[in-house]
Structures are given as C-alpha cells and as structure tokens.
Amino acid sequence: MKILAIDTSCDETSAAITEGRKVLSNVIYSQVLIHKKWGGVVPSLAKRAHEERIDFIIAEALKKYRRDRTPEVKEEQGDGRTSGVKKWREIDCIAVTQGPGLAIALEVGIIKAKELAKKYNKKLIAVNHMEGHIYSSFVQNSHGNPKRDFEFPYLALLISGGHTEIVLFNDHLKYEILGATIDDAAGEALDKAAKMLGLGYPGGAVIERLADEVGNKDFYHFPRPMLKSNNLNFSFSGLKTSFYYFLKRSVKSPIVTSEVTEHIRELTSSFQEAVFDTLIFKTEKAMKKTGISRLVIGGGVIANLYLRRKLKKLVKKHNGSVLFPSYKYLTGDNAAMIGVVAHYKAEKRLFVKNIDELDRVPRWSLDKLY
Hints:
By secondary structure, this protein is α/β, with parallel strands linked by helices. Helices cover 42% and strands 18% of the residues.
C-alpha cells in the first residue's frame, strides 16, 4: 500500500510517499530562515509559508517518486508533471498530521489532505505527530534499510522543541505515557538559553558545537530539575530561570557582553550538561521501574551526538539496546515518519470516517488516541 503523507505541524512543510516502512520519496521545506530574525516561530508567518509551499512540496514528492520508477512505468503513468488522475493512480491512501502542533499550521495540511482525498477518492488517515517520532527509528529507505525488526516492548524517549516524554511502546499503536514535561521541553530550553546568549534561533545546534569545543564539561553546575520527584515527569523552566539569573548576576544584564562572550563555551556546555543529565537520569529511572532496557529515541534534539553517546553508555550499563532514527529522517519534522505510522493504522482499518469532520488537535496526547 502506497501512502502520500503530509506534515505541517510547525515550521516545516513536508510530503512523502511511503510503502510499509519504506520511504519512496520525502520532500521537506524548512522555514528556519523565515523565523530566524524573530528568534522563534511566528504562527502567522508559518501558516503563510505552508500555504505558499504545500502544493509545490506535494508535487515534488510525486515527481521524485515517479523519477525512481522503471522507464516502462514512467512511460505508462506519465512523468510526474501531468495533472489529473493519472499520477495519483498508484497512491492508495492519504495521511496527515492532525496534532499535536501549531494550530494554524496543522490546519493547512489538514485542509489540503481533505481536498486531495475527496478529489481523488482516497481514504484518509489522521496521525499523531508524536507517533511519528516513535516510529522514526524504524523508517527504512527505498531498499529496506536499516533492517530492524520490532522487539516489543520499548521505552520511547521523545525529545523535541515542544515535547519531552517517556512512553511505554507496548505494541503497534499502543502507548502509555510514563512521564512528560510539565512546562518547557528540553529542545525549547536549549533554544531559550541560546537566545539569552545571543546565539540566534534555532540554538540547539550552536550550543552543541560550542560545548564540544570545551569537551562537554560541567563548569557551573546548573540545577538538575525534579531528580528527587517520585514520578518520571520533566521540568526545564526552573533551569532556564536559573540560567537567566546567573547571567544577570554575572554581567548585570541578560544581554550578551564581552564578559559572557569570553565564557560562552563554558556556559553552553554547562547548560547542555544540566539538560542531558536530567534526561539520562529520568530515562534510567524509567528503565529500572519497568524492567525494560530497549530504547527507541525520537525528536530533533537527538541529532546531538553527545546526547547519543550518553544514551549508548546508559543502555550498555543495563545490557540493553537503543535505536536512533537515521539523520535523513531525523532533522526537523517530516512526513516520512507520518506515512510509516499510517501504514500500521491502515492495516487496522483506522481511516477517518467522516472527512468533513476532521479537524486539528493542537494538544493531542498519545494517551488519548485509541
């Protein structure tokens, strides 16, 4: 079954064509340059960029898929630029991210998916964006690599700009949230720290680079929030506030000065260490609580190589294993992982019953799916 998947959950417009776990094409348009000068995502600008690009992105996904077909199929089906039903003949279903995410951004993808489903008489599948991040470690390229089998159950650690969660992944489409952030997510905290230091947006990658230059050391030892709590929840707001006041005491202003610039590597390294220590501590606590030592990791923050090394060290300590998404289907949000989830939903006939009633769910929790 071939699925055209669409994701417009925040600031990246993406469309992909998948078959099972295989990605036959995947196109992403990032809005980072649009939002960079504002220091964060501006909802109205995000919506406008999605509306301007979504038709082109979908057309490109179809074109790239068709370009990879055999010459005989190309001749029979067209070259991907032909309008009408011909180029949609091989698409069985349409999938779209329904939530969570930025409401007016989600709306763009949902409207387009509904329009296409009606126009070409295709079944429609609504997908939770966080499901996509859970399944991203199992996404394969068009040749079926990496060859990873499912060995349930897993603990899924989801780390992005908007979410930090530990999820019990019992079986296909079966999830239980064990812990989640009660305020800022890990990626959001890193971005805000970078903004305080004048490093721009998004700041996670810049913090990683600067921290690596001093060997990822903990110079200032900022607080590790909620380590003594009995639950598996996260909180990064207090850490962010502590960092703010540390800068204010040090230079009498949160604005970057030469004094901060001189120690910027030590500051980024120490803040990153506090965030990652918290993630590792809570993940290990979840492993001990559940007895599960198989981890799957998802979300944009996991692009950080230092965090990957810390997670590998953790599972080695417990004789476990950890799966990461490939970088191709990791950086930012993407439709490829949405299409893979949609495959398993299609197998269970979990299609949208009334297309006209499908609407965005900006705060859609994994606990409230099925």
